[in-house]
Amino acid sequence: IIENFNKQINLDVILRNVIPMSFADGNYIMCMRGEKGSYAANYFPLGVAIVSDYDVNGRPEILIDMTELKSRLSKTYLKTKKNKKLFMQNLEEDIKENYPEEVYEAFKNGERYAKLRRGYSGIIRIQHMSRKYGLTPFFRALEPLLRLRNLYNADDLNNKAKSKKIICQTLRKEILGDKAERDGLNEMAYAHRNFMSAWKMPSVVVTCPPAVEGISYIEPKVEDIDYEKINLYRSIVMTTLGIGFLNSESGQAFTVATISINQLMAVINKISEQFEKILEEWYRIVLADNGIGAEFVPKVSIIDAEQTDIDVRKGLVELLYSKLNCSMK
């Protein structure tokens, strides 16, 4: 029964999505629908799903904003040339086929909100501090990310400025006369044509007229970006997300980076633990639908991220020293 249920709700797909999406959004709201022999699972984005102010045994009641749901589902329903539906005929059929029964009832009755059934719905939250909604770790990384973006934009401007080639041809002041009564335009035009003719050639060899005093490049005076700042902000971003790197120059120990990595793994484990409880509640409902008592509900255990890291290290040690016969020195 449980194996069949897992296949019906595409549990393997949910497992691949629930951890990264919970980490990225800080919240992941889902709901099981169906009855004996036929089940499915829905994911509801924030805005469509709302966490109410009420909770039962520490589990918040989840509401569906019907106005927002209808707004997001408003689309052109594809039809064939014979005016036959390809997928869904209209909005009502879409909600009836793809959403829980209580949502369809709220749609028919014109309700503003639909309350998802207790036990069938669940929410995963991280860093919510006993508040209604969780907060993604990306939020804390936003400020250093914006600073990095500003540095990259400044670097682009500097590179564009450096790429511009400004060549200055200076004429002698004597061409203006003793009392600056001449404009020197003829000499200037001749010197310019002479130089540009030479510039067109692959190898530029120019013999300047006597009126030319010199030719020089003018380069923009811009300072290079401080890459130490870039590395600093990158480090802040990664540390904020729970990822650290070894720094051999500073003499940091391996445990420094390990603690930082374990912070990321701890967040992943918290997500997994919450999903385990939701899944166990679903199993309880499915078994009850089939006349089986709660004592037979299987214990759900998703692979521990920290234990996985230890297993990877053990496997590497075994490969290096037991199979490849590497030296211990």
Summarize the structure.
The chain is of the alpha+beta class. 46% of the residues lie in helices and 16% in strands.
Question: How would you explain this protein's 3D organization?
Answer:
The protein has 329 residues and is α+β, with helices and mostly antiparallel strands. It has helices spanning 2-8, 11-25, 66-73, 91-98, 101-108, 142-163, 185-199, 227-240, 254-289, 305-323; strands at 27-35, 38-44, 49-56, 59-65, 113-115, 121-125, 166-171, 212-218. It has a 3-stranded antiparallel sheet with strand order 2-1-6. A 3-stranded antiparallel sheet has the order 3-4-5. It has a two-stranded antiparallel ribbon with strand order 7-8. The longest helix is centred in the last third of the chain and has 36 residues, at 254-289. It is elongated. Mean pLDDT is 82; it is low at 248-259.
